[in-house]
Structures are given as C-alpha cells and as structure tokens.
Amino acid sequence: MITTWKEKLADQIDPALAQEIDVFETQIELRRQGKMEEKIFAETRLRRGVYGQRYDNGQRYDGVRTQELQYPSADLTKGPETLWDAPGMQRIKIPFGGLTPDQMDVLADLSEEYSDGILHVTTRQDFQLHFIHIEDTPLLMRRLAATGITTREACGNSVRNVTACPLAGVCRDEVFDVTPYAKSCARFLLGHPDVQDFGRKFKVAFSGCKEHACGLVTMHDMGGIAVKRMEDGKERRGFELYVGGGLGAVPHQAKLFDSFLPEEELLPITQAISRVFARLGEKEIRSRARIKFLVAKLGIDEFRRLVLEERKVMPEDPRWMAYLPEVRKYQEKPLKRSMSLNGEERPEGFEQWYETNVYQQRQEGYVVATINLPLGDLSAWQVRGLADLARRFTGENVRITVEQNILFRWVSESDLPDLYRELQGLGLSDPGAGSIVDITACPGTDTCKLGIASSRGLAGEIRTRLATKFSEMDEAVKNLRVKISGCFNSCGQHHIADIGFYGTSRTIGGRKVAHFQVLLGGQWEENAGSYGMAIGSVPAKRIPEALDRITERYLKERKSGDSFQDFVRHIGKKELRDSIEDLMTVPPYEQDPSYYTDWGDPREFTMGDMAAGECAGEVVSLLQFDMAAAERLVFEAQLQWDDEDYSKADELAYNAMLQGAKALIKTEFLDVSDDPDTLVKAFRERFYDTKLFRDKYAGAKFAQYLFRRHQSPPSKANKDDARRLVEEAQLFIEAAHACWERVANRQASDPSIDQGVPSPTGG
Amino acid sequence: MELQRLGVKLFVENPSSLEIRSFIPIFHSWIQRQAIEGHLLIDIHDYSHVYRGPGILLVAHEGNFSMDRAEDRLGLFYCQKQPSKGSLRNHIQTIFRTALQACRLLEEESELEGIRFKTDEVLVVANDRLFAPNTPETFQQLQPVFREFFEQLFDGNEFTLNHRTDPKERFSVTVHSPHSMDTQTLLERAQRA
Predict the structure, then answer these.
(1) Considering CB atoms only, which of B49, B51, B128 is closest to A460?
(2) Which of A26, A562, A623, B139 has the smallest count of CB within 10 Å of its CB?
(3) Given 3.40.50.720, 3.30.413.10, 1.10.1790.10, 3.10.450.50, which CATH number is that of A435-609?
C-alpha cells in the first residue's frame, strides 16, 4: 500500500527535482536534530521558497499584552529568532505567470491540505500559501513538482521568479512574444552555479513593448524589452537590456545596458552580469547588496565594461543557443475557433465587465478576460472552478499578473457571455480590472514580519468604498491606479502607482498610530517609467478621505488631456499636500480612540500601555515639533527635485536628515549646535554607537544614509543621486520616529532609565 | 490507514442575523485568554472579501477554526493540522469535541445576539487526499468507524451518512439526524463517545 506522496508520485517527478526535495527533507531533519546551523538552514529553506511569517519569533501582541506563544517544540528554531513550530509562508514561483488547469487543481488541493484554503497571488507572478508548517513543505513540493512547478529559489539570495508581460504573445503592440525567452531564461538560471553566491535577491522581467506597463522592466534588477533591427536585409530579434533597477526602500530606475542585445547573447550576457554581481556585489551590508547599488557605485559604463570582459572569458555553454529553435517554434494553441461577439444574450452586468476586463487580442476574434481578484486572494473552490472554466474556454492559456489578477487568454469572443455567467457563479465577475478599484496590496501586517501597517486592511476598505460608486465615476478617475505597501519596502509597488501608500507609524501622546505615507505621480506605463514621491504621512483612518480629496481635485482641476502625472506636476506637490494637511492631525486617544487601531484589526496599535508622564509628554511634543520640521525639509527637497534643482534638493534632503538627527539629540540635551559636524558626531555617539538607532530588521542602514552624505557631499548633484538622497532622507526620518518609539518604550517599561529630562548642557 | 487530518463543520442555524466581521473581535478575545483547550491560538485572518471562502479564520497551532461560508452556508469549520496519536475513532472524537467547544463559546458571546448551531446536520471532511481520496472505496473503509462514533454521539438515534462524491473535492460526508439537541448536550456526548 502506498503511504507517502513520495512513493505515489515517484514516476511523475523529474529525478533531479525529486532528489533536491529529498535533500531538503533531510536538511529539515538535520536541523530538527540540531545538526545543521540555524543560519545555514534559514538560507537553505528560503531558497526553497519556505519563508517566515509574522509572529514566528513566538511573540504576539494580543491587544492587551504581548503573549509568549508556547509551541510544543519550544526553543527549536528554523532560523534566527524563527521558531520551528511557528506557521510560515510558502512562495511558489510561476515563471511568466503561466499556468495550466492541472496545476491550478494541485495548487487548490495544497491550499486546503496544508494552508488555510486560500491562494494568494503576489505582485511578482508568484503564489503564496500562508500558515504552513515546515514539516509539510517537502510533501507540498513533491506534489507541485509532479505538475512541473518548482519552489526552488523563490526566496533567498537568488534569482527570483522571472516575470513577463501577461499579454505577451497576444498584445496588439508588442514587438514579439517574449514568453519563450522568459521561460528559457528562468530555466537557464534556475540552480545555475553562477547565481548561487549573490549578496541579495535578483529579479528579472521581460517586456514586449516599451510604451505600456508591460513587464515593468525599469524597476527590475535586470530586464529586457523586445526590439527588432534590420541587418543586411534580415530582421534580427534582440532586447533593449536594462540593469540595476529596483524599488525597495530607495527606488532606482534601471540603466540602459545595451540598446540592442541580440537574442543569441541574452543568456551569456545574463550569466556574465550574474558573475559580476556575485563577484563585486556587496555581501556584508544587506541593505546595499542589490545590484542597483553596484551599478550606481561603478556607473553603468564601468559595469558594462566589466560584464563584457567577463563575457569574453566565460566558457562556452551549448545552452546559450540551444533554446533558440524552441523560441521560433513556440506557439500557444487556442482551445476553440475564434468567433466575434454577435447576437449572444448578454447577462446583467456584462457590459460593464466587458468594458474594463476584456482586452482584444491582436488575433482577431480572440480576447483576454481578466479575473479581478480582491486583494489577490481566491479560495480552493474558486481555483478549481477556474481550472474547469479554463478547460472549457481557454485550455492552457492562463496567466497570473503582477496586479494580482488572473488572465484567461485566447477566449473566443463569442464565449464571453457564458464565461461571465460562470464567473458570476464563482463570485469572480467583478468589473474594474486595472482601474482604481483594482488595488494592489502586499500582505502587510496580516502576515509579513516587516509590515508596519495593514496594507490589506486599507486596500479592502478603499475597494469597498469605491466599488459602490464605481459605475458613476469619471473615466479619468476610474483609470487611476492605487498601490499599497505595509512598509517602505515596496512589495505593493507603491512607487509606480498614480497614488501610492506605504505604512509608517507615529507616536502620539505615548501611543502608536498607524499612518500611511502618500506618494503621488508614479508611472505604471512605459515599463514603470517614473516613481512617485511622498507628500506627507496621513493617519491610516484618514487615508480614504485623502484619496477622495486628491481624486476630486484631479477631476476638477486637470487640464484637458492631462494624465495624473501631468496634473501633479502642474498643481504641484505643495498644493496637493496642503489640501490634505488637515487630515494629518491625530486627535488624542481620549477624544477618538478609533485612530489608534488599524484597518481590519481591533487591537490597539500600540505595543502596550505606555506611561505618558508629564515630563515625557513635553519631550515628545518637542520631538514631534522638530520632526515635523524635518519632514517639511524633505518635502521641500522633493519640490526642488521636481523643479530640477538637484543641488538644492540634495542640500535640503541632507538638512532634513540633520534636522531629524537633531530632534533625537534634543531629547537628551537641548543646547545642541547646528553645526553639521557636531550634530553628526553627537548623533553617532548617542544613537548609532549605542545601537539605539539600529532597527531590528533593517539594521543601521538608515543612519548610514546620513553618514555617507555628510562624509561625501556631491561635487555637483545629479538627478539620480539627488532623487536617491531625497528617498533616503524620507526613510531616515521614519527611522528617527521609530527610534524615538523604541526609546520611549524602553523608558516606559523600565522606570530606572532616565526619563529623558533634557539637559541644557549636554551630558 | 493513517488518516489523521480531519475537519468538521457545524452550520449556523440563524446566519442572516450575523455580520461576518463581528467574529474578528471575538476571536481576538479568544486569543487573549487562549480560550480553546489543547490549542495554541495564534492569529486571525480576515477573508471576508473572498466569495464563499473561509470567512474569518482563527489560526491555531493544532488546527484552523473558521467562520466558513463555503457553499453559501455559514458555519464553524474546524480542521486539524497536526498529526496526533490514537485511532481514527479518537481523531473523530477530538475534532468534534474541539469544534463543539468553539460553538459553545460562540453561543455564549453576547455580541453575537443569539447565534445557534444546528446539531442535526454536520459535515465531516478528510483533509488528506493521500490517505482518503474521494472514492467509494474510502467511504467503504471509513463508514464503519464513522457509524460507530455517530451512533454514540446521537445516543442510538437514527442518522444517515451521505458521501459527497465530487472527485476533485476532499472526501467528505454529511451526517443528518432527525433529532436536534443543544450543542452542550452534543458536546457532553462527544466527550463520552
């Protein structure tokens, strides 16, 4: 009798993959027995997509106190401060988002048997399963492997999922279909020896065109945009290759590496880039280890030179060219003959859905139908239902998108009414795909260890509010994109939204209040053509109002044909900030406690009952006043940057950091000098050397932003560097807020610590 | 057969009077006092936006509780996650005891304005497609154990077991009894069964 999935699926799994999973299972056992070092095991499991999740350090604030979660395996860990029994997350890579119905069925089964019955689509064409136990992961991996899916290198310092435009192959504007290139690149890089020694993750994307959002190439570590060129009367395919982009805390636009990289050179150059990154990329300081920092440090010209040198000395690999015949043969097969939508009876709601969720393919009579998933979630039952619909309407032509939706491609247009009826039955017929109601959100505080505020809670609230008035909305507002991250790390891609938000917190009267920083003017089109900039931090509970005000103003004051980016430029960020400034005020807890909880979570947003003594209260007020000045400076820096005065922007951003540092120093002594050397020295001694400024997860990177700028001011600030410094200054100020919260918490929990009566003379 | 992962759903008798998100603060209070015996309650997840989905989820180390809305029927679904010792009969008893304990706690919540759970219909799910594929053979194998347990649970009164046969869904049976009783009585019987 068969008693394990390993036996049952033995002849369905690629032997190499099966062996990898066996090895991982052994590693789990070794770690359980204490025979494998915790840090090594952590990176090992991450490279299998087995990720930590919120509260996995065994502590959770329950609204009254911080509970110690007493797991059966007690102190056994699966990584630093990560308890063995704590439920975690499994990330599942879906290269270019391509799925088959059989894979969907298996994913549904796994979500029920090992997770919580929900599949979550991420912003990088992955799936995530939450609340997974580590012992179950090899079983889950085997069942995925039997359908051709690997979780290898879904996390960790490795090449993450290779993404691509979800319309690739059917797009009306693409140069050529990038799908087979994305597929081959993913396969080539998976487990490649040259990508095993990175200091950080590496994300790759492909686009078929330059104008649309497409694959969002410019925000990736490496990305290729399809281009063609005529040479000697022959058409050649290649890529406009970009390198060194990325969002994260400090976003970077990728730099052009080559305006035409011939397709034959795609894999060797990718390999050469990987080798240079592995060799020269930062390994010690995690926050500087993405390739964007290496490219910025070396400059794109020197980086390119090094890569081309590397390319010359690399041993030939037959795989570089072997995939090209496959590329030429690659063709998706529609399930059914194409037919136009003619006299079919159209169900109620169909027209509105058709307007927003249906895209006409370049192949006549075929369309792409977008299935709009609220918060990127769908249940096992829905996934199985979709798999059956795929078998009926589209065959194997399903893709998941970075906007957390599902696409059915190659649907015969005449089938749309039937498809719509079936989607209604699954509760998946919401209109508004790609519109203001189709909000992208990272997991935030729901499950992410780094989440500060509830991105999903806010997204759900905004979605509910907007959905009721969606049909009456002006097209200009309908077409805006809203994206939300739970922290500054940008997993919700807030930088590339028209209106973006990322979670922060503020301490008001000794209690924490969830806030979101508001960013305006990011560009989704042109492969994430430009990034939005912050205009101010608003309490989470006032964000829906802030959104309403901004969109109403856009509607009233935009000039004919203005995009949202144009509108932001001509109204100006200052004016827009002014229009929401009154929303930034938080009333005292006693007056309105609702501000002190986050969306969807009734727990008070504090870390415990904090003593708000008179003395401490005065100091906090002083600090808040000084921090507001710092925030104002960074905002002015943004305005200068907008006006292309990069030197001024640089100077103001630097001054904002100095002001933030000074605010902290003044909590210890009031007569602090304005001299930058003195300020930086005092900050270093009192907050950096003492590790008070050190964030538990981000380490000391925010302090380094100040030190670096102080030590090496630019001789002439350029656009990119000034932009980076403005972003860094914003983060430094957030870190200063967080630092003060830690200090205040410490003081509150230990009365023996000096309560911070400021000394006028230093000391 | 080493089937250990089982689930049970008890349906709410009066679902129309309930707002799904009203369970969120209640589950938080359960975590505060670790209200379910033998369970380490960890976290809550709001899936109210998912159509006919798990609704509001209370995650415990040993199993998940959810105010589930599958098939448009609100009910408390408890699904065991951790393997436990003992026979299949013991596992069934354990999941019923746990689920009924949770139902009782909900019925005692004043904020829920008289929520009541049906006791004449329950759904039992085998959450393991390896040991319990949804086939007639599995039903044949499991039926005797199920019958023995439900005879005791319903105190010898008649009941029916209906195998739900969709091969893509997990193995499950619906148990119907013409006799209804309160959840406290059923809980006491589950503890003795």
Answers:
(1) B49
(2) A26
(3) 3.30.413.10
